[in-house]
Amino acid sequence: MRFWRLAAVAVAGTLLVGCGPPQVDQSGSGADKRTGTLRVWLFDEANRSPKEKVVNSAVREFENTHDDVTVDVRYIAVDTRSERFTGAFNDPSSAPDVAEFGNTDLASYVAAGGMAELDEMLEQWPAADDLSESVLETAGVNGKTYGVPWFTGVRALYYRTDVFEELNLEPPRTLGELAETARRVHTERPDMYGISAGGKYTYAMMPFIWASGGELATKNGSWESAIDAEEARTGIRRYTELIDPSVCPPEQCAQLTGTESVQAFAGGKAAMTIGGDFNRSAVDAGAAGENYDVVPLPGTEPGSIAPAFAGGNLLGVLRSSDRSSLAQEFIRVLAGEKYQRQMYEAMGYLPTLEGVQDQVASDDPTVQPFVETLQSGTRFVPSTPAWSEIDAQEILPTMVQRIANGNGVRSTTKDAARRMDEAFR
């Protein structure tokens, strides 16, 4: 049995950019009604239809087993989530009972007092034993759980099989070999980046820190930056070595975001990139076409996998809900094995239940590298609303860009750590 309960959570959420947690009115009735309308907010999609079909099926199943209950699902735009959730927290009469939200928003919502704890629910839900432990950590703040991971996403190493075959190369087994391979490609094929590694691609840089034994920050009473520790500096050096004239020239690559880094690979400009399972369709449609494969991003030793950042969305219950038990029961249906599998088939979202992960990897080998990465252990960012300020100030991208443009690693990481600590205070 996988032990789901959080111990000390050392890592969790980036948050709504540039704003502190909203003030919350939690003057609810305290009732727990078993009938009536259960209000649900889910994020809208560019193509809502496949997601809506799965959700509607779950709703019908739930309503068929709950007399006198109607589930009212509303789809909200992701880019309006700040004002929608702030409004819901301050006006319980307008709030949903169940909501989908990004795991990087969790700490802000918890700091606002808007979300209900779900530890007891998870303890009583057998399927929770199958949740990936490291993914479940993204649903926790200060040792308590406030959401159920609905789906997740991780990044792995994409590479051009035709270029590797032409140059008689093998996929790198370590981060050291990754740099060597990237340099070899750019030397032999100067028209291509060895790897498209962006200066603004923070989620690609983080695994280099974690694989080297470093941390973004540590918590000992309060959060403190750890990126100027030697282990973190080692990882940062490894990443910034890729933004180099011999691999991916700084004048082109220091400004690349994650999306632009993947686009460079998809467009045939790079022999490798770090991309997510959610990037496969874009790569399939690009110049790389069928001439690519994916492997887990290696760690520092052969056979190891660098810990990836675990993105994804959670399902949670608002504290103001007067149908809390029904809300939890609906989450158990929608986040259960049956509908996680259907959501994968409809939207391509990676499931969070390991049994379902194994099923989809067996059925679709292209998913295997991402499932391997998930099951080897993922990581997250510090669980504090201060992370939104750190993110908004672009402290880490600025650090990477300065190093890529010739500034010293020691002095630059020290300055970045100072700025992070100012935000943590």
UniProtKB/TrEMBL annotation:
The keyword Signal applies. It comes from the Bacteria. One of its GO terms (molecular function) is maltose binding. GO terms for cellular component: ATP-binding cassette (ABC) transporter complex, substrate-binding subunit-containing. InterPro entries: SBP. Transmembrane segments: none annotated. The keyword Transport applies. It holds the Pfam family SBP_bac_8. One of its GO terms (biological process) is maltose transport. SUPFAM superfamilies: Periplasmic binding protein-like II (SSF53850). Belongs to the bacterial solute-binding protein 1 family. PANTHER family: MALTOSE-BINDING PERIPLASMIC PROTEIN, MALTOSE_MALTODEXTRIN-BINDING PERIPLASMIC PROTEIN. This is N,N'-diacetylchitobiose transport system substrate-binding protein. It comes from Actinopolyspora biskrensis.
